[in-house]
Amino acid sequence: MLTRGLWRSLLRKKGMEIWRKVRETISEFELLSEGDRVGIGLSGGVDSVVLLDLLERLKEELKLELYLLHLEHGIRGEESKRDLEFVKKLAQERNLPLFFKEVDVPLYAKKEKLSLEEAARALRYLFFEEAIRELHLNKVALAHTADDQVETFLLALLRGAGLKGLKGMPPKRGPYVRPLIRVWRKEIEEYALQRGLRYVIDSTNFDLSRLRNRIRFELIEFLKTFNPRIKERILEMTEILRQENEVLDLLIEKHFKDLAQKEGKGIYFDLQALRELPQAIRIRVVALAFRDLTGVDLSFRHRKSIELLINGKGGDVKLPRGFLASRQGEKVYIGERPESFEIQPKELQIPGITEIGPQVFIEATIITTSDEKPSPEVALLDLDKLTLPLKVRSPQEGDRFVPSGMSNKKKLQDFFVDLKVPRFLRKEIPIVLSGEEICWVGGFRVDERFRAKENTQRVLKLRLIKEKP
What we know:
Low-confidence stretches: none
Number of domains: 3
Structural class: alpha+beta
Oligomer: single chain
CATH topology of the largest domain: Rossmann fold
C-alpha cells in the first residue's frame, strides 16, 4: 500500500511527464511563439482547466497574453449556467480576461437542419472566430486530448470516412492549436489532482445514448480485450495517416491552383483536365473547391454523384448550402445555384430592343445584305419566311425545331442534353417563335427553315445581349 508521501511523489512524477509531453508537442508542431495572444477554450471541465494551468506556467517564459473563451450552449439548462459561473470565478482567481457568449444551440440546429452536435460545433467555431477578431488573437488553444483523438478516429470509422476523416484532429490548423493532443485523459486527471485544480463535470459525458460516450465506455473497452494497448495503437495510426494526408494535400492543392478558375460565386474546371487525373486526386480537387467556397466537406454520396457527372453518367448534383455541381459544355461548375428567371411570353419589337429578363435583351434590325456571319448570339433569319409578330418565351415541354444544317426536327430537350446545357439554365434560354414554329434558340442555333441564305432579299438580324445596350 502506498503511503501518502509515496503517492504525492508519484503524482509529481506524472505531473512532470505531462509537462514534458506538452512542451514537446508545442515545440514539434510550433504551436506557440513568443508574444502570442492566446485564447483558451475553457469549458470548465478537467481538460480545459489543466490546459489553462499548463499555459499559465508557460506564460512568463514565452511572454504570452492569455484570454479565456467560454461559450454557453444553452443545452444543459442549469448545469450550463453553473459552468459559466464557475468559469467567471476562475477568471477572477487567475486574474485573466474572460470573453464569453450565450447561444441557443437547439434553436440554431432546428433553423440550419443540423444535429445538436453539428450545431454546437458550428457555433463554437463562429464564437472563436469572433473572439479572434475582437481580441486580436493569433492563437486559440483547444483542450482536445489523446483520448478525444482515438474517439474521433472510431467515430469516423463507424461513419465510413476516408483518409481525411480517419487522420483525426491536427495538432495545428490555422490559429487553432491542441497542446494536449498526445496526453491521455488519465494523465490529465492525475495532474489536476496533484495540482489541486477544481473543475466541473459535464453529466452528459456519461449519457450512453450519445454515440461518442458509447465508443468511450463500451467500444474501446471491448477492443481492449483484443489488444490492451489499442488506444496507443490507434493514436499512432492517426499520426501516420496525418503525415500521409499532408503529402496528399500538397498534391491536391497544386492541382487545384493549376485547374480551378474562380468566377463570381463559383469555380470552374476544364472537364478533360479533370478526367486525366487519377480518380482519388480528381474527386478531392473538386471537394476542395466546395470546401473553399463553403468551409465544409462533401459527403461520400455527393462525391460519388460528382464522379458520375464528370464521367458523363450523371446529371447535375444538388449540394449542401444551396450549391450545385454541373457540366457546362466542356467545363465542370461548382458553386451557388444561380437564381434563374423564366421568360414571360411577349412580342419582339422589330426593329427595336426588347427586354426579356434581368439585364437580358434581344435587339432586332432589318438589313438587306449582310457580310456578318451568324454566331450563337446573332441570328440571321429570312424575313420573308417569318410570320410576324415574332414572340419570345422560355422553353416548353414538347418543343421541337430543325437545327441549322439538319433536315429533320429534333426535340429541344435532346438538343440541350447533347450540348450538356445544365437544367437550371434552360428556362432562361430565349425561344423565338414565328407563328407556332421555333425560328431561333437564342444563344445556340437558328432553325434551318428560317435561316438566311445567300439569295435572301431581306434579313432579320436578332442579337442576344446579356447587359444593357
